[in-house]
Amino acid sequence: MFQDCWKGTGFxxxxxxxxxxxxxVMNFAFIEGKYNGSTFTILGRNSMFQMxxxxxxxxxxxxxxxxxxxxxxxxxxxDFRTGDATVQYDVYVLx
Length: 95
Description:
Keywords: Apoplast, Secreted. By secondary structure, this protein is mainly β.
């Protein structure tokens, strides 16, 4: 529904010794439409080889000021050589 009206920034750090498990923090900022200027933040462990990973929505701003919820992330493609990935984020938020 919001495919082209947001931008995401964040970082990942190693969070596992035995697999590709990453600790991630991401901010999703809406840049147009009804939610323009609003953001929400996700935090959690992202195990890249699991089909679907779940992470928490921990806060927001603007229309998402008291947001809580979760994100389900699914990797569609991953280039091991460059590290580039295409990931779908399905977000479920309570306001």
